[in-house]
Every structure is written in C-alpha cells, then in structure tokens.
Amino acid sequence: MTIQQAPRAVVMIRPHHFCSNPETSGDNAFQTLSNRSAMDTSQAAMEEFDSAVTLLQSAGVTVHVFDDTSTKTPDSVFPNNWFSTHIGGHIALYPMFAANRRKERRQDVIEMLKLNYRVQDVIDYSGLEQDNLSLEGTGAMVLDHISRIAYTVQSNRADPVLLERFCTHFNYEPIAFEAKDAFGNDVYHTNVLMGIGTEYALICLDMIVDPTRRATVAQRLEESGREVIDLNQDQISSFAGNAMELTGNRRLLALSARALDALSPSQITTIERSATPLPLTIPTIETAGGSVRCMLAGVHLTARERITP
C-alpha cells in the first residue's frame, strides 16, 4: 500500500480562542457568523477539535497536537496553509494573504518535525509577504504527490509566480484554473472544491469556469488512474471536497460528518473500494470557512526511530 498520497501522521493546532476570522471573510464565501457568544463558540470548537483528535488516533493515525492560546490567530486551527512537508525530507513555509494569519507560523512545529522525522531542508517563501504575495500551502494547491501535479485555483491566495517557483523547487507540474461558485464568487482555496486520494479524486468540475480547462483537469485525473467522483455545488457547500486521505490501521478518508452526509450512496461506495470514510463532527469549526482537510497538515516525511507525539 502506497502512503505517498495518504500520510500516517498529521499536525493539528488546538484553538483556545477560535472565531471566524474577520480579515478573511471578504473573499471566503464559506464563512458564516455564529449567534453564540465568543466563549461558547471557543469552547465548542475546542470540544470538536479534541473529539476529532481522539477519532483519528483511535483509527491509527499519529497526531501531533500543538496548543494555540493566542487571541490574535483565529484561523490557527487550519495549519495546512502555512507549511507543508514532502517526501525526501523537505518542508515549505508559505506567505499568507491575511496579516493575522502570518502570526500562525511557529518554530516549535518545525523543530518537532526535525526531531521526529528526517528533514533535509526548509524552503521559506514567507518573506514574500513583504511584497504582498501569497501562496497558502495545501489550501491554495491540491497536490497529487504520485503524479506530481499541483492543481491550483487562481486567486489572491495563490500568486502565479510563487506557484511556478514552488513547482520548480518541489518538482510538481502546475495546473491552474479559474473557479467560481453558483453565485459567481471566486473560489478562494482549491481544497474546498477538490481532494485527491490514492485511487479516486473528489472534485466539482462544474465550478471550473473554462470548459477546456475543465476537460484538461478531468483528463489528467483520469490519466493518473483515479476514478473521478464529480461533486455538485451543494455538496461543495457542505465541504464534501475538503477531505484528506490518511493511513492509519487502514486507509482512511477523513472528512466532516456534514460532508459525508452530503455524499450519495454511489459516491460513498466508490470511496469505500479503497478507503474507509472517517467522519469528524466539527460544525463550529466549519463556520470559519474550512473543514477537515484544512485542519490537517500531513506529514510526508520519513520517521526517525522514536516518535514523540
């Protein structure tokens, strides 16, 4: 079983002061306002987070948990945007669009990875924030680690020059495209409309604006040997595309309970041919405009002999 697309370990950040980020609401149509108090919202998010960690660990996934007690980083529960890890011992640090999201980067996470996994280098793009450039990690890019393709929605969260630079450094082919939702809003992150597993791909092809580009994306996914599960826009609104394949006691697809409920029986059957759905109940966290995939920073590094969670 290849684990290239489905890592055995993830990094997750426990949010002590979770809320929907006002600095990202302008271009994230998935964000919603809560009518609960800040304290109730924060407590609910913590409980959802801890429950998700327990379920992942019980399924055999190694989860490295870090606490965030800051009141200045409302989106810290979504660490996949500020760093990614890659086979061969590589780590990338990314420039973020919103100023308060730049505070999410933390050296203790990188030091933990160096301690427990074989890390050859850390390539840091974050200084390009000073030029108002951003490339928000595996939110902006959905990476096919097997076929080495970086599928990327064109947005202010994915600068085209930085995309080319990343792909050159990490040996990916960029495939960029414009995507909009049913209301004509630009899609802000690629991982809300697609997720790639080892043997299948979840994607809403209808959201890709250009028909030629839409056909190209579908063709490249099929050429990679994956079965394409074409999602509709209602399913995307329920975060059905924001899922991540992991390796635990078996191959898993981590997604939210809301996302799983939105999938059709035939779509679930297709997934179950190669992975077991693992639904996580995170309705409060989803009000911030991200779901399970955003919460999981996959560890695609070779473990040293001893692991410290």
UniProtKB/TrEMBL annotation:
Name of the protein in its database record: Amidinotransferase
- Keyword Transferase part of the UniProt annotation: yes
Alphabetized Pfam families for the sequence: DDAH_eukar (PF19420)
Q: Which InterPro entries match?
A: Amdntrnsf_FN0238
In terms of superkingdom, the source organism counts as Bacteria
Q: Which UniProt keywords apply?
A: Transferase
Whose protein is this, by species?
Answer: Parasedimentitalea marina
The GO terms this record gives for MF are:
transferase activity
